[in-house]
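DM from R.C. (forwarded with permission)

"hey, sorry to bug you on a friday — could you get me a structure for this? deadline for the figure draft is monday and I only need the backbone to look sensible"
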Amino acid sequence: STTGVITESFIDTVSTGARIVYGELFHTANAGDIGIAQCYAGVLESFSCDVDGNIGAAILDTEDYGHAGDPGNLIAIDGNYYVACYADSIETFSVDVSGAIVAVDSWDWGSESKTKIVKVPGTTTYIIAVKNADTFGYIRSFTISNTGVITKSFIDNLKFESTKCSDIISLIHCGGDYFAISAVGGTDGFNGLIYTFECDTSGNIGAAVLDTMVFYDHDDYAGKYCSTPFMTYIQDDVYAVVHYRQSSYDGWVKSFTIEVPTGAIEETATFNSDSHLWDTETATFSSDSNVYDEDTETFSSDSHLYAEGIETTTFNSDSHIWDTETATFNSDSHLWDTETATFNSNSHL
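My reply, with the result:
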């Protein structure tokens, strides 16, 4: 339904062979409508489900990795290749159009837990968030090839929680080099927190956490801990976290924003003549011009800045516009006006 009404009857069902406590379902983009169930204790199962909700009569294939404890998440690598994470290990595998699962590679790096994984988009770089043996929270980067081969060494590390990390629920990409974690931790390990950090395409992690937000303080709730804070992206710079409180039947959804520089004001913009800026009319661009840059700005003479028909501002060479750099002008260009602004090649605004 386009109105969000839930059809309160199931289309189809199939029983998994393994317990799916704390597990995940993942529907691939493969032909054959293949899905993957990541079940308890390290068992992967494949199944089919078409666009009408018809599920195949039985589980198609099973891969038992034998990992005890709660599973982490499961994400796509490339094509038919995927990675699943567990307490302190990851497993890569492929799934074909028939649902056949083939193990590719495995890495057990030590005594850690609560692992979540995310891919740095468009790269072979991956990030995990983990709780170490000292109950601190760490971010670690490494690479996985597009065919599932793991480079078994970390590129970089960052401690994101230095008091107590009790649980890690979500690790997501926010845009650019920016990522966010939702977790349970803090002084007593009972608070609900959001952390943001940077990691570039080569796996270099920022020197410190960018920001931290406590969205649930256990002191406000008689010491009851926050549990399972799942975070998701909504739209623009808006995110939401859903969680519940110890010994409570209530759940909460809380929305918040994460500011992520888009790079738009740092990108190179190119202009042709008769372009309009900050106007309701169409802006036409060509190459090698910078907008809101700190480079030298070159125009024609008698240019108008911030002129709204009240008076004309005339600039000579060595004039400065919102910058410490020198701006040089030529003739009859209008900026921040409804009139036409005429530019030469390689002009900077």
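R.C.: lifesaver. The chain has three domains: 8-108, 110-258, 263-349.
me: no worries. Residues 11 and 52 are 8 Å apart (CA to CA).
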